[in-house]
Amino acid sequence: MAGTTDLSNRIAIKGLKDGLVVSLGAESTWAEVTEALMARIDAQAAFFQGGRVAVSVGDRLVRSAKLAALRSALSERGITLWAVIGTNPDTVEAARLLGLETSLQQIDEYRELEPIDTEVIGSEGVLVRQTLRSGGTVRHGGHVVVIGDVNPGAEIVAGGDVVVWGRLRGTVHAGAYGDERAVVCALELAPMQLRIAGHIAVSPPNDNRRRPAPEVASVRNGQIVANPWKTR
Amino acid sequence: MSAKVVTITSGKGGVGKTTATANLGVALAGLGHRVVCIDADIGLRNLDVVMGLENRIVYDLVDVVEGRCRLRQAMIKDKRLPELYLVPAAQTRDKTAVSPSDMIRLADEIRPEFDFILIDSPAGIERGFRNAIAPADVVLIVTNPEVSSVRDADRIIGLIEADEKGPGKLVINRVKPEMVQRGEMLSADDVIDILAIELIGIVPEDESVLVASNRGTPTVMDGGSLAGRAFNDIARRLLGEQVPLTLPEASLSWLQRFMRALFGSPNGRGG
After folding, report:
1. B159 touches chain A (CB under 8 A)
2. Would you identify the CATH topology of the domain B4-263?
3. Most-buried pick from B22, B67, B71, B228 (CB within 10 A)?
4. Residues 54-113 of B with CB under 8 A from A
5. Cα atoms in the Cβ-side hemisphere of radius 13 Å centred on B229
6. Is the ipTM of this complex over 0.95?
7. Residue A174: domain span
8. In a domain? residue A73
9. A221 with A171, same domain?
10. Does the residue A218 lie in any domain?
């Protein structure tokens, strides 16, 4: 069993915006570096769980069987191997055959996007373009916009406003840092529980005869109220 | 020709995964296809009991994974249908005895020789569920028309989507037409409204299912039962046949039947 310092010399882990990059030391054998990587992952399982990893192999030759084995070993630990970066053309070809990315180019381009100048001053938010199913959670310090439904059992916590272009049936907390001006809008506003800053409300018992209409919930006179959406 | 791997899962326990697996296995084999059913519920095996093959178990899934026998030796041949096999779960171990990549490897090993590999998933969202969906080409989510099982199905669909196994197809099991009609039970429309995935079958509550499970002869084998026919329809839809989705008859008033005759099935929409 190798010591900690020895292990950390074999691999280096670096965080990027889109995931982690693991660089494998050039001196060690493939078996040694993968063993070191798995040991590191198992030691910090919670940190790696659900993550995506790119592996930088330097100039070594890695056949597709070894890459596939690495991928399944990682997937057993809840980690997605999405890219293999190397200089050996056979390694690159093997990675490509397995459907893996072979460069980080795409993310870099994405990261270099310049912010667009606008005349209106906006504030930060996150756009979620999928239905949030039970167990799904979105937490963000700014605003949260969902294009899709928010099903019962899903949860949104936002520092700012919450906009749901769909049916809101889960739990939602807007103005989570105490902003009472925060609002929650949905095409169909029927949350399990709705919170704005420190106020809590639940939806009235649902009335199936009523046609769903877009509504906005906000705090008025210390109470959460929902009003039909009207353009001004 | 390579087998299609169909995993049957639900999140919640007791909604009818094992019954569905056994009946779909029998239905597909009855339609002339080569079928293997794999019980992935290690530690709580049931599929062998429901299929009436319990007394013939020699080796199980864990024996195969740990190399004590070849996969072929663990496959129990059904006495009634020539092309139906069962790989039973181990009763003495737990889910960690098998890994997702083991399941992929086993499925790949038998793919060339079969048309369908049905995997009966355990309840829950942990390792056993991960094992069961790892090799899946198609995932069937079984739910009952009641709020808690729909909630769990929703969670499962989210997990399957995150695993890039597609949204899956929905089986609504144990529907009581009279209760739906009285507004005391969620209707298929209510369930689809939340889950928003393709509906592949509605199975009515049917006492013959329980009787058949206890006897170890899946209800499809009897032919006549309502649930048996519903499972047969699901099997044919899995084969790509266009079988109209119908509500169990008792749930339709004369007006609904009239409307259906005019405009087609109200449950025919996909997700």
Report:
1. yes
2. Rossmann fold (3.40.50)
3. B22
4. 99-101, 104
5. 13
6. no
7. 125-228
8. yes
9. yes
10. yes
